[in-house]
């Protein structure tokens, strides 16, 4: 057991506020800070496109490509679609737009079926600009796709609740939570750093209320493991050295207690370290329960792990009175 529980200075989230604050880290792993004045989409488009979800990304890139082809289709129509070989002359603007749009798509993607080709200098100039534009946009989209696929993002699942429970079959109090890798690959050299934040109300010399956070780097029964093919239950013993000692669950809720977790591990797929952040607010704590083992051994001797059971708990067994 690593005995390192100690009070620490501000880890980077602030210690003094004029009002009560919400949790430090949201359930999705993001910090609960609303940033004003950050780089906008135009100035930081690459980072924005790298980090947004897949559905908005597909919509944005698809919209840019379609809009670009629509703009060029109108330019071709403005110059006269009769200057494009293979376009059928009709009295319908819609038919002309459709043919100009498909010519634009062929030029943009440099497909060049041969059925349509420019016949005037104006159309040729616009087609040349579009082909160059298409190459740039294709290269940009390819780079964004590569960046999204090559980002080392871990898929660590944390148990829904942290447990205030007994350590194994003893009478010792402890704090527990469980983590598991959602992917098939194995994470190596996992290290866990766990901190406790407790918020207290104080009154300054002028009679004004202020709220201060105190941070503690807490000891763990085991702070690192070599491999994580199964789940890992991370345990902090609540003894006299623990900041949670003699605090009830209601005390922790009243003081906005929060457990901050940083997991670092080597991902063999990406070939580099990955980091995962998570927190348990006091309202996420549960008393009187224990984690249920989420794996078993079948008749063939294989270990069967149920990833979805990482949250599974049951009640602590009642103590039998000695006669």
From TrEMBL:
Residues 156-316 form the Inward rectifier potassium channel C-terminal domain. One of its GO terms (biological process) is potassium ion import across plasma membrane. Residues 74-145 form the Potassium channel domain. Pfam families: Ion_trans_2 (PF07885), IRK_C (PF17655). It is a multi-pass membrane protein. GO terms for molecular function: inward rectifier potassium channel activity. InterPro entries: Ig_E-set, IRK_C, K_chnl_dom, K_chnl_inward-rec_Kir, K_chnl_inward-rec_Kir_cyto. The chain crosses the membrane at residues 54-76, 122-146. It is found in: Membrane. GO terms for cellular component: monoatomic ion channel complex; plasma membrane. Keywords: Ion channel, Ion transport, Membrane, Potassium, Potassium transport, Transmembrane, Transmembrane helix, Transport, Voltage-gated channel. This is Inward rectifier potassium channel. It comes from Flammeovirga aprica JL-4.
């Amino acid at each position: 057991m690593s005995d390192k529980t100690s009070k620490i200075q501000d880890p980077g989230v602030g210690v003094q506020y004029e009002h009560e604050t919400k949790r430090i880290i949201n359930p999705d792993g993001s910090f609960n800070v609303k940033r004003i004045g950050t780089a906008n989409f135009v100035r930081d488009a690459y980072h924005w496109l790298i980090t947004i979800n897949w559905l908005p990304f597909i919509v944005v890139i698809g919209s840019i490509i379609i809009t670009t082809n629509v703009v060029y289709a109108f330019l071709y129509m403005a110059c006269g679609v009769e200057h494009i070989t293979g376009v059928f002359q009709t009295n319908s603007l819609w038919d002309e737009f459709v043919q100009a749009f498909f010519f634009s798509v062929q030029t943009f993607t440099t497909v060049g079926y041969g059925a349509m080709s420019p016949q005037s200098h104006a159309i040729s100039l616009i087609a040349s600009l579009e082909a160059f534009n298409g190459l740039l946009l294709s290269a940009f989209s390819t780079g964004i796709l590569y960046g999204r696929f090559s980002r080392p993002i871990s898929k660590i699942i944390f148990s829904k609740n942290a447990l205030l429970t007994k350590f194994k079959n003893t009478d010792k109090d402890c704090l527990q939570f469980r983590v598991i890798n959602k992917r098939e690959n194995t994470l190596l050299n996992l290290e866990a750093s766990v901190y406790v934040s407790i918020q207290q109300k104080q009154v300054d010399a002028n009679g004004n209320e202020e709220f201060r956070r105190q941070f503690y780097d807490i000891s763990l029964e085991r702070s690192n493991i070599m491999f994580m093919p199964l789940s890992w239950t991370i345990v902090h013993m609540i003894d006299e050295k623990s900041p949670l000692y003699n605090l009830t669950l209601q005390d922790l809720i009243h003081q906005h207690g929060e457990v901050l977790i940083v997991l670092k591990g080597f991902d063999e797929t990406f070939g580099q370290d990955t980091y995962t952040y998570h927190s348990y607010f006091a309202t996420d704590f549960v008393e009187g329960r224990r984690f249920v083992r989420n794996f078993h051994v079948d008749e063939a001797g294989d270990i069967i792990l149920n990833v979805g059971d990482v949250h599974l708990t049951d009640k602590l067994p009642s103590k039998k009175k000695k006669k």
